[in-house]
């Protein structure tokens, strides 16, 4: 694609999406807007997680840790010293934690992402000494360590009680804008020379190393970029919910993101977006099945039925789409193949 066509495409997609964001409050009720806002946040998390796991091919299970870091940094920066004095009941907050206050949402999210990226840089040295399943185990352990740290250090995080009264600066419109910027930025990374190097590492790390690719540098770059946007997503999540606790950042969050990117297709940006819409949107559409008062003919809702039906649907999709819905291609690649007569 030429540069002219590329910028035209980006401009068109941006215009359409901003128009959708503008008119959404007039078309949907408040509950639907909350669901859409949650989808936008998870798109940020999914495309950033897909960068390290799908594009670079590193089986990492760390997102819940970086999301937690972003959420807690955002909460600590946005809460005023007076509010912290009231919230911290398990232990007196550390002076630095108590006195730090940055009410600027943009700077807060930026710092949250930078802190997560710096932690990723520190982790990269021991983490990328191993590969494959061992890498998954090491990064899985990191997520557990972050959660235990948050619980056992109440002077920093208020322990298991978590933090609430977080300012809700993340409105529906600005969450959508953050989602759009994240997708555009990561898309540019994936289709840059660094993105090609990441795919080379994924396809054959030893061959990439033999061809002169600094594989450690590339994996670290992908890891830090992924962590940065996961930290930003965590900050948006904290602001949109208004309250956080360590129980929100268990392995189940990572598992949900893993389902999303595998369903959409590992390595596919549009696949990660499609997977997020299907998983989160599908869960909401099936929510009435959990209501005992709901019925369709002789079929009545049962608490937990939603998860059973949703799991069966995922199983059927994965049986017929072994590499995910889009594989490692983007959705527009299929239109090109169809135009060229390839089925």
Short description:
The protein is an all-alpha fold and 343 residues long. It has 16 helices and two strands. The protein folds into two domains: 3-249, ABC transporter involved in vitamin B12 uptake, BtuC; 251-343, no CATH class.
Keywords:
single chain, mainly alpha, ABC transporter involved in vitamin B12 uptake, BtuC, two-stranded antiparallel ribbon, 72% helix
- Percentage beta strand: under 5%
Secondary structure: helix percent = over 70%
Q: Could you tell me how far the N terminus lies from the C terminus, measured between alpha carbons in angstroms?
A: 21 Å
What does the overall shape look like? globular
Tell me, rounded to a whole number, the average pLDDT. Answer: 89
The largest β sheet comes out as:
2 strands, antiparallel
Please identify, by name, the CATH architecture of the largest domain. Orthogonal Bundle
CATH class of the largest domain: Mainly Alpha
Question: What are the segments in which pLDDT stays under 50 over at least 5 consecutive residues?
Answer: none
User: What are the secondary-structure elements, in order, as H or E?
Assistant: HHHHHHHHHHHHHHEEHH
Characterize the structure shown.
The chain is an all-alpha fold and 343 residues long. The chain has 2 domains: 3-249, ABC transporter involved in vitamin B12 uptake, BtuC, CATH 1.10.3470; 251-343, no CATH class. Helices cover 72% and strands 1% of the residues. It contains 16 helices and 2 strands. The chain has helices spanning 3-27, 30-55, 63-78, 81-87, 95-99, 105-127, 132-152, 154-157, 172-190, 193-203, 205-210, 215-241, 251-264, 269-285, 305-320, 331-339; strands at residues 295-296, 299-300. Helix 3 (63-78) packs antiparallel against helix 6, helix 3 (63-78) packs across helix 12 (215-241) and helix 6 (105-127) packs antiparallel against helix 12 (215-241). The longest helix is centred in the middle third of the chain and has 27 residues, at 215-241. The model has no long low-confidence stretch (mean pLDDT 89).
């Amino acid at each position: 694609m030429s540069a002219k066509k590329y910028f035209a495409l980006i401009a068109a997609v941006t215009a359409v999406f901003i128009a959708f964001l503008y008119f959404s409050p007039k078309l949907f009720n408040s509950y639907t807007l909350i669901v859409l806002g949650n989808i936008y946040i998870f798109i940020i998390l999914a495309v950033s997680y897909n960068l390290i796991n799908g594009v670079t091919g590193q089986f990492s299970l760390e997102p819940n840790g970086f999301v937690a870091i972003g959420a807690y940094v955002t909460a600590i920066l946005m809460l005023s010293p007076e509010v912290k004095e009231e919230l911290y009941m398990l232990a007196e907050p550390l002076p630095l934690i108590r006195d730090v206050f940055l009410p600027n949402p943009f700077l807060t999210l930026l710092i949250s992402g930078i802190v997560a990226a710096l932690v990723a840089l520190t982790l990269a040295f021991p983490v990328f000494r191993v590969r494959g399943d061992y890498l998954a185990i090491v990064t899985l352990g990191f997520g557990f360590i972050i959660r235990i740290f948050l619980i056992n250090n109440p002077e920093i995080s208020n322990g298991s009680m978590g933090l609430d009264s977080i300012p809700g600066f993340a409105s529906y419109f600005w969450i959508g804008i953050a989602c759009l910027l994240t997708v555009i930025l990561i898309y540019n990374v994936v289709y840059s020379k660094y993105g090609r190097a990441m795919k080379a590492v994924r396809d054959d790390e030893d061959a990439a190393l033999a061809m002169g690719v600094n594989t450690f540098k590339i994996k670290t770059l992908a890891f830090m970029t992924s962590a940065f946007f996961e930290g930003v997503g965590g900050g948006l999540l904290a602001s949109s919910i208004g309250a956080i606790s360590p129980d929100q950042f268990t392995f189940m969050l990572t598992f949900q993101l893993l389902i999303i990117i595998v369903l959409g297709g590992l390595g596919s940006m549009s696949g990660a977006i499609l997977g997020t819409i299907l998983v989160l949107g599908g869960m909401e559409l099936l929510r009435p099945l959990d209501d005992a008062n709901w019925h369709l003919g002789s079929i009545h809702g049962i608490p937990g039925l939603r998860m059973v039906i949703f799991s069966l649907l995922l199983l059927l999709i994965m049986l017929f789409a072994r590499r995910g819905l889009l594989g490692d291609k983007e959705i527009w690649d299929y239109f090109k193949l169809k135009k060229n007569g390839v089925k």
